Amino acid sequence: MRATVKDVARLAGVSPKTVSNVMNGIVPVSGPTRLRVEQAMAELDYVPNLSARGLRNGRSGVIALALPDLATPFSAEIAHCVVEVAHEQGWSVQIEETGSDPGREYDLMSRARSNLIDGLILNPVVLDESAVKVGVSLPPVVLLGEVSQKLADRVWVDSVAAARDMTLALARTGRRRIAVLGAPGGRGSAAAVLRTRGYQAALEQLGIDFDASLVIPCEKWSPDTAAKALSTYLDSHPLPEALFCFTDSMAIGALSVLWKRGIAVPGDIAVAGFDDIADGQYAVPSLTTVSFDKRKVASEALRLLTERMADRGGPQRVVALDYAVVERDSTSS
Amino acid sequence: MRATVKDVARLAGVSPKTVSNVMNGIVPVSGPTRLRVEQAMAELDYVPNLSARGLRNGRSGVIALALPDLATPFSAEIAHCVVEVAHEQGWSVQIEETGSDPGREYDLMSRARSNLIDGLILNPVVLDESAVKVGVSLPPVVLLGEVSQKLADRVWVDSVAAARDMTLALARTGRRRIAVLGAPGGRGSAAAVLRTRGYQAALEQLGIDFDASLVIPCEKWSPDTAAKALSTYLDSHPLPEALFCFTDSMAIGALSVLWKRGIAVPGDIAVAGFDDIADGQYAVPSLTTVSFDKRKVASEALRLLTERMADRGGPQRVVALDYAVVERDSTSS
DNA sequence: GCTTGCCATTACATCGATGTAATGTGAGTC
DNA sequence: GACTCACATTACATCGATGTAATGGCAAGC
Q1: CATH label of the domain that carries residue A9
Q2: Do B113 and A93 make contact, defined as CB atoms within 8 angstroms?
């Protein structure tokens, strides 16, 4: 059986509350007493029971991070950063996946693991598509990414501007027939809509007519679906001069298809992605992409979250992060 | 303020314990009473406080998953599977990263988040290198992967056999000068040692003399370190006929280097990996690798863990998973 | 020497859910 | 109608840590 404050107190010859005082350091404890207590804690290998502490204090020191799919490199990198930053600040992170069951997003937001969790960082997929009942007692929530709803604090990158800049960058390499992969199909996520909008804005700016046949829909943003979508597309369409994939994962799928068909990148077609995942650097050829600081995403999200925990009533805040178009071998050699 | 059993009880006109009985379903509750309680719970949007329940029951319903680095595709895929399988069984998963600080492995094992966590699935990096003080009160632990220590239940793939089979497969394509990337440098992880051993076993079986100059050390198993290690190697050595990388991540880094140098894969050199991460399929060229069922890793680990929770004293068990050499374009076209 | 005041320490209650043991209620039997 | 028996329900204590209010001791001050 694990030692409790009582055991430590008995061994140190003090009261349980004194042990607690030593741990918390708010109430002063005299030198010799503190020493005796610390020795007793060490001797018994005392570890505070966080359930009890959580019950008493009303906070558990755990936050939840909800992502569509942890196996996605982008999600994984975000999760890595969140876990790392959170750990530095003394938080533990519980991971929830929402990908397989969209209802879980609402579930998580409205119930929030019932006090086992002090706050929630949510990278939504569905949430942006329908209204959420803004219950009275939502837990502190920070949303990551493009969300049309204005229901919580948010950290994001300006997808419209970033997609526009990437399209312009592709145009600067002399290509005009620029296709996009990942356009909204049926429902379409907010990010898909926004990135398409940025693409169109760039075309307008360039004086290029929008050509609907250059918009390749791809509902799910994974390499396999992207590969399939592009493959199907190429069977019945001429090769575009450039391909802007709405995520790096899709771009990696696309590169694979192009290579298998003997289409040279960037010789025959330029390819770009979005997100700057680590593998993009080692893609063949290395991938031009929209980059932003994922550690900053994590630290800003955590900052908003802790501030929200301190002040539940404050105004909603949005943090927009810088981004940069990083040109690598997939668009110019 | 969130509703408690007391509130529900008051509204339903029963005692708190009856509400508890309705929730748990062990003690029988009469039909009408149960209905009244359920309505009251719905009306108040009651959610049980898991801290309190955890304190009382001594279990929290949360397990921890400790990985070196969540951003690694392999770790991410494992995490994805564990979270998914755990969720199906009603567990929540807390993620811990051990990469930056090896001491955390011991810390986690010996302290185990102080009752906020019912068990631990640990993918160790350092643990296999030194003895662990087998404390009296370790929490239920399951280790993932190659570990020399016999200190806990374990799920693994036979690295020696798998590396041997991969080496044999490479030899079957007619290559004799087979190099390995990821060999143990200074300390060297257990997996590195075992995979090297499998490689040597294959050479012996093939009647090929072991050539130390074909062993390329690479301490950290990431694309960037692999790329650097291979690059340096190629500057001062002739090109091998095949390159067996001890992880897919390293292989992806290697492919990138080879492509940049204009070395054709598999024309000039065959490349293989280990782990079968999703991106390997979309590598250019697609990557030959050692594959195993990661979902099964997760489900077996969770099975061992829950069984261990039920019976702390039972004998230590090891589950060895099947693997398969999957040949793709990087070794033959 | 006795009080005043301060500060370390203590006893007790509390957070919310639930096991235990006791109570209450009803039907069923003679 | 009194009694047993079974079963639903209740009061109370408990898990471990900690805030609150009260207690204790010690030194300074007259």
Answers
A1: 1.10.260
A2: no
Which residue range is the domain that position B142 belongs to?
58-157+293-323
**Are A279 and A192 within one domain?**
yes
- Given this model, what pLDDT does residue B276 score? 97
Instruction: State the total domains in chain B.
Output: 3
Given a cut of 80, whether residue A224 has pLDDT beyond it is: yes
The answer to whether residues A315 and A261 belong to one domain is no
Residues of chain B where predicted confidence (pLDDT) is lower than 70: 1, 100, 102, 110-115, 126-137, 148-149, 186-188, 333
Co-location of A285 and A305 in the same domain: no
From the list B279, A309, B284, B261, the residue with the least C-alpha distance to B271 is B284
Contact by Cβ (8 Å): B11, B44: yes
Which chain B positions have a beta carbon within 8 Å of A255's beta carbon? 282, 284
Residue A16 CA distance to nucleotide C13 C1' (Å): 14
Instruction: Tell me: do A193 and A222 sit in the same domain.
Output: yes
Q: Are residues B239 and B181 in the same domain?
A: yes
DSSP, collapsed to helix, strand or coil, labels residue A129 as helix
| pLDDT for the residue B100 | 60
Mutation for B interface: A4, A5, A7, A51, most B CBs within 10 A: A51
Distance B108 CA to C15 C1' (A): 27
Lowest-confidence region among A57-61, A326-330, B22-26: B22-26
Distance in angstroms (rounded) separating the CA atoms of residues A54 and A61: 8
Q: Which nucleotide in the DNA or RNA is closest to residue B3, CA to C1'?
A: C16
Please indicate, yes or no, whether residues A73 and A36 belong to a single structural domain of this protein. Answer: no
Q: Give B 226-265 residues with CB within 8 A of chain A.
A: 227, 252-253, 255-256, 259
3-state class (DSSP) for residue A28: coil
* A118 contacts chain B (CB < 8 A): no
User: Does one domain contain both A257 and A198?
Assistant: yes
Q: Are residues B250 and B182 in the same domain?
A: yes
- Which nucleotide's C1' is closest to B17 (Cα)? C18
| Domain CATH code at residue A188 | 3.40.50.2300
**B52: closest CA among B78, B23, B27?**
B23
Residue that is written with structure tokens 């040949």 in the block: B327
CA→C1' distance for A56 and C15 (Å): 5
Residues of chain A contacting residue B97, judged by C-beta atoms under 8 Å apart: 80, 83-84, 87
* 0.70 exceeded by pTM: yes
Phi, psi of B52 (to 5 degrees): -65, -45
